[in-house]
Amino acid sequence: MFVSSLRQAINPQPITTTADTTVEAVIALMSRARTSGVLVLDSPRGNETQRDQLMGIFTERDVVRMIAASQQFKGVAIGEVMTKNVLTLTESLTDDQDIVTVLTLFRQHRIRHLPVFDANGTLMGILTQQSIRTVLKPIDFMRLRRVTEVMITRVIHAPVSTTVLNIAKLMAIYNVSCVVIAQSDHQGLTPLDSTGGVWSADSCQIKPVRPVGIITERDMLQFRNLELDLERLRAATVMSAPLFPIAPDASLWEAHQQMQRRRVHRLVVVGNEGELGGIITQTSLLQALDPMEMYAEIEVLQELLQQSESERDALLKQLIARNKLLESLALTDELTGLPNRRAMEQALPQMLPHSAAQEKSVYSDYICLFAIDVDFFKRVNDTYGHPTGDGVLKEIAARLQRQARANSWFYRYGGEEFICLTVGIGPEAAWEYAEDLREAIAQEPFTSGEGVEIPLTISIGGAIAPLSGITPEGNKIGQDPQALLEFADRALYEAKREGRNRVQFCPYSEILCKFDPNPLDAR
């Protein structure tokens, strides 16, 4: 019985024909349908009076073989040149059949098409490498493996001056589905075979070449359908270019996605300098899911499960520690080492009630927010460069941290803007704290790596409100600081407008009216 994933991979409407159809008609049909193979039946598909009898199969590879052998096409029936004794897959009534079963058949018999019949002998459709690749979902496995692990390194290639007929002969001789068209980076590189105009694999290893195009079996089918003169037609004229190469260190999942996006069956692999490194095909991707390798992976997992309890605990602790490290990195600004905006948004709801409860002063139920912006920071970047600008931000972060008070946290909000959150501090103390932060930056210049002294100043916009205040939307300010941030930003704008290097607070009475529905006074 076919498992669901295999059933999904079956193309239920394969292109079919009869044995008396001419080769030219079949090639035209394949070209229109953009299919790589046609099934040859003893009667037209859809005849309900009898079951489908498979006579043979005709693929792009057969077209290349005929071109290379200079066989006639006109007037030849497909039954004379098709591949007979076709390997098929029949649905079993007792055993499960899955995609691994099909991959094994593809590998053992070196085929790319597999007609499928049900238990009664009725044609269900056809399986191809492409149809299987569309339903495979081993994403994690493919992401772990690199192109360099499965790519074909001995690539058949030829110079741009080679005729298309010689390209077909190369495909037939080496039994490959494509030939890469390449140029030499060395003037001393000459063709080994003057009649075929190709380079040998040994020659390639000594003198690398640069791929500029590719010709595939499907291209050959199109050329023959157009009745082009393949003996005179040069590769440079009809090759597919430009190429869409892939790097050897890319993952197989990237290769799979690029093939789907470009609607191609193969990708050329190039090195750092654009040299030909190999080729990766649909066959390569399927080989990455080789049944033996998959079974080996399963065996490794089984061995891990059989480890002692202590070993598993150690592995679990390592995993937890690694996850914590990753979480920390995601919440930390890489440049300054301060928590980032995301960290502020996550931590605020948890820390505010706890911190306020610890504070015993008369202002223990207040939260203060400073929006801090570096003055003329763009001028620093434009004058001294971004590395110096990064150094300025790191220095400012360090100075702010040295001035930190109890129940006070600094965050890098983005760009040259920082946020300071403080709880348990009243309006007067908040003003003094903001002035201390401003003076810590302005009191001495920043010295760059080249010894240049750069004056630094910051502008601070402050806003303070009771923790128990409620916004018009019904949110507690301790859990939704966005409104308080808007007041601080407004004050920051005023500080900038008044000349910078100063502290400006949003009028307290204005904030109190927003967060306290019944303010007693403005204190």
Task: Describe the overall structure.
Its EC number is 2.7.7.65. Pfam families: CBS, GGDEF. Residues 10-73, 82-144, 239-297 form the CBS domain. Residues 365-508 form the GGDEF domain. Keywords: CBS domain, Nucleotidyltransferase, Transferase. The chain is of the alpha/beta class and 523 residues long. Helix content is 43%, strand content 18%. It has 22 helices and 18 strands. It has helices at 4-9, 23-33, 60-68, 78-81, 99-109, 129-135, 139-144, 147-150, 164-174, 201-206, 217-225, 235-238, 252-262, 282-287, 291-305, 309-330, 341-358, 377-384, 386-402, 427-442, 482-497, 508-515, and strands at 16-18, 37-41, 54-59, 89-90, 113-117, 123-128, 157-158, 178-184, 209-216, 266-270, 276-281, 366-374, 408-414, 417-423, 446-447, 453-454, 458-466, 503-505. The strands form 6 sheets. A 5-stranded mixed beta sheet has the order 13-14-12-17-18. The longest helix has 22 residues, at 309-330. The termini are far apart. Residues 187-206, 353-363 and 517-523 have low confidence and may be disordered.
